[in-house]
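TA notes. Do not distribute before section.
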Amino acid sequence: MRKALICGISGQDGAYLARFLLEKGYEVWGTSRDAQASTFGNLLRLGILDRVKTVSMAANDFRSVLQAISHSKPDEIYNLSGQSSVGLSFEQPAETLESIATGTLNLLEVIRFLGLPVRFYNAGSSECFGDISGLAADEDTHFQPRSPYAVAKSTAHWLVANYRSAYGLFACTGILFNHESPLRPPRFVTRKIVQAAVKISKGAKEKLILGDMGVQRDWGWSPEYVDAMWRMLQTDNPEDFVIATGESNSLEDFVATAFAEVGLDWHDYVIQDPKLFRPSEIRYNCGNAGKARTVLGWEAHMKMRDVVREMIRHEQQS
């Protein structure tokens, strides 16, 4: 039985990845800063908490990382931890950089220090590309980070590449474009939109206030994207991969789709507030996952409208 350690198992991707690996017969371990105090709510929602072993780990503390890896003895490590909000990174840049970049460095250094034959996956981000001016980014597209979050993710990406080439670690980064699910916290705009549409359709007298609705994103489905993470660690040689749908839609399109799913016209319920616009916003992103399709046999089946439909359905049932 193979063992996997998921750093950041409490989040959206961590929970879906845990379920995915359990279905493949893995022994799954997951980290939380304080595993005894954490509720692991997403694992509970998926009904798998009692099948996961948990361990406390602070990724920015080398000794803590060393103890967690020594205790769990994993064959595969999935690094999904760290501050995950682009917007919040402007308010907490130092914490964002430390949790993502230093956390990744500690994991890599522990693997090197212990000499373990571990396969390491690092969660990258399409935010690293910045504004790509209407093009679809692939693995050769240059990084132009425009937020503290993107700077941190770019740093982690190059740390992984350095440890792969300098020390021969099996380490790779998945450069994932936006991917959503019902497990997204309400502070993320996609879940905020879906929640508001469902509440208003049930009679709530409220308005949905959003920032720039003209931005365009490549939105996929999180349960499909964790499959890609696993596939990256099953290859003969570690490589980085862009994971995306190849389709870009505006936030206005997302909003219109969500409200149409509940039989409403979004124009009657949505207000755009310039105070919510982000500094140095990325206007457009889209990914070219051709390499993943060729090498991994992976491609996205659910596009933005499918994602919205599933999120609405789950919200209505909750």
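Switch to the second chain here.
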Amino acid sequence: MRRIAIINQKGGVGKTTTSVNLGAALARAGKRVCILDLDPQAHATTHLGIEPDGQAPSMYDVLIDNKPLADVRTQVDDNLWLVGSDINLAAAEVELAGVVGREVIVRDLLAADEPFDFVLMDCAPSLGVLTLNALCAANEVFIPLQPHFLALHGLSKLLETTALVSKRINPHLRVTGVVLCLCEANTRLAQEVERDLGEFLGNCRTNNVPWNQARVFNARIRRNIKLAEAPSFGKSIFAYAPSCHGAEDYLALAMEVLGEPLPQVVSAKVKVVVEEPVHSSH
């Protein structure tokens, strides 16, 4: 089972969009996928069509009352399950402050849960107890990153945190990929940031750090209005607009994560889109 924490302490970079749509793409590829919403804002929960009203069991009950994940999980599509969140989760940071072993609650519950091919953990834009639980439970980290220079500045702090967790709690934790999101077509800035990021990761290959094998995924998630619209309809991009650029990009990312070639008809279509100038966001 691949347990992947999708994290970045900066908001608005595509964490939830990636968690939901990568999960949906993997599910459509026949993999059993469970998404854990570890953000009190509950954006992944809303994105998948569940109202975070605080009435149904959520990740709060998992963390505070040790409720089994199976009792909280909801199937939202074929091969796709969600353990939802709500605003109550914001109180978990305070309520867990004096709890011994608070950082490994999710890890222990996943160990007792039924096996999935993938568990994707959508993390809050912070490095608190909730994100720490995800890092302790994960064996991989994906970092969604907008290709701007300021985004690179925050990356070092995030990598330091993964190194600390790897050293003290979870020696199996590895940063395996960076997902470039909200990409503008053929801008010099994006190309420069991508080059700098590639050089940085390449220089770490011989270092004893959790990101020494990390790569920048070839799939680029282009800025696309349909990706922004889909959450308001409570649907993944594949249910909302399966032929748009956003669906193509997340399918390409899923195939890359699986190590499988992109279906030929989609691959050809993506190639055409990349080579043509983009005049609109769709």
